[in-house]
Amino acid sequence: MSEPPETVDFGAPDRFGAHLFRVEIPASRNDPVLIVEDYGYRGQEGGIPREELRVLLQRPVWSGIADSARREFNARLKAAKVSTSRWHTGSNRVDRLLGKELCVLAWAAETANVELIPVICSKWSALRPEERWWLFSMTVAEAGLIDDTQRGWRRALFHALSDGDKPTQRRKRPRPVETDLFQLPLFKDAE
Question: Quick check: is 117 in a domain?
Fold first, then answer.
């Protein structure tokens, strides 16, 4: 039986040059969190950059999504018999596929208010990993860089996972029609 691969943080390969994601968490609680895709050895070849900045999250948004991502990732790492982790100050390395999933969550939450974040986390948790990977691919093709906040699929992720802008407002039921269609002024007999 083969040994599980050596990993660090959230399932990232513990070898130099691996394609992975980094979550940069600064020591200051007021500074934003940065998620970076690091292409490793593939970077700088064939037009691929060394790394791409995927999303910049304000600290309250990161605090709102971090626990959901940690629980989801640790459950999957544990099932794969890989060591689990927690978020820490500094650079957190994340497996390539888990990093894609984290970007989908971060993109959906980046412009959300604090009340919407639990809804976004819940809907993100309900997605299968393959669905998250697909959403990542679609978003990166059009709006996957740090400055693309309000564009295309990135904006669509917010609407799809948040139920819109107002979580507390319920839709009103339409009023029942009280008048008979044949009693409208248009159909009255001329007197």
Answer: yes
Q: pLDDT by residue (tens digit) across 108-158?
A: 999 999 999 999 999 999 999 999 999 999 999 988 888 888 888 999 999
Contacts of 50 (CB under 8 A, 6+ apart): 38, 39, 43, 44
Number of domains the chain contains: 1
Tally of CA atoms within 13 A in the half-sphere of 67 that contains its CB: 6
Q: Is residue 55 a contact partner of residue 146, using CB atoms and an 8 Å limit?
A: yes
Task: Flag whether 94 is in a domain.
Answer: yes
The owner of tokens 């943080």 is: 9
The range of the structural domain enclosing residue 80 comes to 7-161
CA dihedral for 129, 142, 167, 33, sign (positive or negative): positive
Residue at 142 is within a domain: yes
| Contact in structure between 10 and 85 (CB atoms under 8 Å) | yes
pTM, whole model, 2 decimals?
0.81
Q: What is the pLDDT of residue 102?
A: 98
- Per the domain annotation, does 19 fall within a domain? yes
Is the CB of residue 118 less than 8 Å from the CB of residue 64? yes
